[in-house]
Amino acid sequence: MENNLSDAFKTLHSKLRDLVQNTLDPISLQVEKENKIPEDVVDKIRALGLFGMPIPKEYGGLGLSTLEEILLIEEITKTNACYRSRIGTSNGIGSMGIVYDGTEKQKKQYLSTIASGKWTAAFALTEPNAGSDAASITTSAVLDGDHWMLNGSKIFITNADTAHVFTTVAVTDETKGTRGGVTSFVVEKNMPGLSIGPADLKMGFKGSFTHEVIFKDCRVPKENVIGGMPMVGQGFKTAMRVLDKGRLTIGACALGASEKMLAICIDHIKQKMAAGKSKKQLQAAQFTLADMATRIFAARQMLYHSCQLKDQGENVTDKASMVKVFCTEMASWIADCAVDMLEEDGCLTCNQIEMFLRDVRLYRIYEGTSEIQRTIISRDLLK
Ligand SMILES: Cc1cc2nc3c(=O)[nH]c(=O)nc-3n(C[C@H](O)[C@H](O)[C@H](O)COP(=O)(O)OP(=O)(O)OC[C@H]3O[C@@H](n4cnc5c(N)ncnc54)[C@H](O)[C@@H]3O)c2cc1C
């Protein structure tokens, strides 16, 4: 697979590896404690072009394939999850709707600013009564002259605090529901009627925030329907297509975290051996290490293979769900084993394993819970 990657990509990958090892990881626990990524560190991520990984080159992005993007995400998640989260929505759910279905004018207007990292894009779908069942959203958009009037509330919106634009999904015809009655909009943060609630106090992802986003008679220009007026009513399809790719991304996040946790465990066991413990005394730990490495190997193969299929134009909806459920549940299992393996150190907050344990749990919730992934997989099997 490596042979198919360009030299330019390999250089970028190795620059990111250096950034992770020399800058991001050494301050990982400090970021955790202060609940903030220093702005000069965000600048370094920006300088590598990582805010625009999948955005086509003609709109200022890196134009990476799915596989290339996933390789970078795997690398950047071998440390605190908040770094990936800071760039994640701009690369994925926040901007991909515009990439897939936006008009040429929308692409020119928004994508280069997002790709440069000057603007952050967020994605507003979830509502207090519509999480897994996204089809139950009630945020409404009513045409009023040259504007749409949006009313409703979206919750758990990642990067709402730093976002300049929100890809927002709203109901434009409740009689049609998701079959022609839901529309996606690009809403700018300064449009009148949009406000942001306080940050959620989450168990993990310190340094990355989710907020409520409230639309109260929020006036959005008519031309801000993603894809323009012919796409009115077609926004649910756009949102679901965006989520397909997002699931591969979360698989890569869980894989990167798992690889780092395995490395921490290997170091720990080697130290025990250096301190005089025999291999026989450490046999249980060795078997667990072997199982961790085996699952990581399987996860990597299914992730890369699905990305390659997606890059060849295949529909990977079921595979993306399999990747998400397998990789994220593997990461939680590895975190749990790692807490045991590190003995008394495993539960200390001065140790990254405790951070990973909380962070990887969240990967099982957003962009579709494990139950929802299993529903998608079995629906395909039984149709
Ligand atoms: C860190 C984080 C970041 C997020 N970022 C964003 C964002 O940027 N934009 C955005 O729009 N949303 C975001 N979300 C919201 C996220 O997508 C939802 O939390 C998720 O879809 C689950 O919805 P819910 O929390 O309402 O849970 P519910 O849908 O109420 O589910 C509760 C439980 O019931 C189970 N369940 C639900 N339906 C079924 C079913 N049919 N069959 C079996 N079990 C079922 C679920 O699996 C879950 O265990 C984020 C969430 C988190 C935690």
Structure, described:
Helix 8 packs parallel to helix 10 (317-341). The two termini are 33 Å apart. Strand 2 and strand 3 (147-158) form a beta hairpin. This protein has helices spanning 7-24, 28-34, 39-47, 66-76, 82-91, 96-101, 104-115, 235-274, 283-311, 317-341, 352-363, 370-382, and strands at residues 121-124, 140-144, 147-158, 165-171, 182-188, 194-199, 210-221. The model has no long low-confidence stretch (mean pLDDT 95). The protein has a four-stranded antiparallel beta sheet, with no helix packed on it. It is built from twelve helices and seven strands. Bound molecules: flavin-adenine dinucleotide. Flavin-adenine dinucleotide is lined by residues 89, 123-126, 131-132, 156-158, 205, 210, 362, 365-366, 369, 371-372, 375.
What ligand species are in this complex? flavin-adenine dinucleotide
Number of domains: 3
Task: Round the Cα radius of gyration to an integer and report it.
Answer: 21 Å
Q: Name the overall outline.
A: globular
Q: What share of residues is helical?
A: 40-55%
- Name of the CATH architecture of the largest domain: Up-down Bundle
Which consecutive residue ranges, at least 5 long each, have pLDDT under 50?
none
Structural class: alpha+beta
Keywords:
three-stranded mixed beta sheet, globular, single chain, Butyryl-Coa Dehydrogenase, subunit A, domain 1, about 375 residues, alpha+beta, binds flavin-adenine dinucleotide, about 15% strand, Butyryl-CoA Dehydrogenase, subunit A, domain 3, Butyryl-CoA Dehydrogenase, subunit A, domain 2, 7 strands, four-stranded antiparallel beta sheet
